């Protein structure tokens, strides 16, 4: 890559990170190009489109922060506390960072690195769920796909309430967690979704209007 192309790519990465964090991954590419001081065509020549640009910056946007929540949750000695910490921690990141909210819900499934991050989230969630269930604290029929829906609805609530009641998500998450304790469990009317079904539904639920 020529030196001028490298400089333009760096400008575009920096602009994408800034605008994605402010407004989420759906920011128009023309605005990213304008913010970087390059043409729309330059962005497409260097990255090819939105998914490729997301792939370039998703590690900077989300990986360390999400991994940090998972590590602290896994370090909790109490299995329920670890599970609850993870749910609350990811939901808080969603409420404060629109880019992470879109990453967690797998909004752009054609962005391979983004979906790799989603896979890491699921691995951590599966471990924390299993640990809490083995301890008898979490209802035994709860799955990682069920948790994905919690993150999806939290993303919608946090976005809608941001300017009016920015802490509304905290109440909703607390109510949900209380309902997931093993002693509150009742038979469910339907079985869990597969991972593919869950991400398909989440893609529709969180799709940009």
Automatic annotation (TrEMBL):
<dbReference type="InterPro" id="IPR009057">
    <property type="entry name" value="Homeodomain-like_sf"/>
</dbReference>
<keyword id="KW-0805">Transcription regulation</keyword>
<keyword id="KW-0238">DNA-binding</keyword>
<dbReference type="InterPro" id="IPR050109">
    <property type="entry name" value="HTH-type_TetR-like_transc_reg"/>
</dbReference>
<feature type="DNA-binding region" description="H-T-H motif">
    <location>
        <begin position="28"/>
        <end position="47"/>
    </location>
</feature>
<dbReference type="InterPro" id="IPR001647">
    <property type="entry name" value="HTH_TetR"/>
</dbReference>
<dbReference type="Pfam" id="PF21597">
    <property type="entry name" value="TetR_C_43"/>
</dbReference>
<dbReference type="GO" id="GO:0003700">
    <property type="term" value="F:DNA-binding transcription factor activity"/>
</dbReference>
<dbReference type="Pfam" id="PF00440">
    <property type="entry name" value="TetR_N"/>
</dbReference>
<dbReference type="InterPro" id="IPR036271">
    <property type="entry name" value="Tet_transcr_reg_TetR-rel_C_sf"/>
</dbReference>
<protein>
    <submittedName>
        <fullName>TetR family transcriptional regulator</fullName>
    </submittedName>
</protein>
<dbReference type="GO" id="GO:0000976">
    <property type="term" value="F:transcription cis-regulatory region binding"/>
</dbReference>
<feature type="domain" description="HTH tetR-type">
    <location>
        <begin position="6"/>
        <end position="65"/>
    </location>
</feature>
<dbReference type="InterPro" id="IPR049445">
    <property type="entry name" value="TetR_SbtR-like_C"/>
</dbReference>
<keyword id="KW-0804">Transcription</keyword>
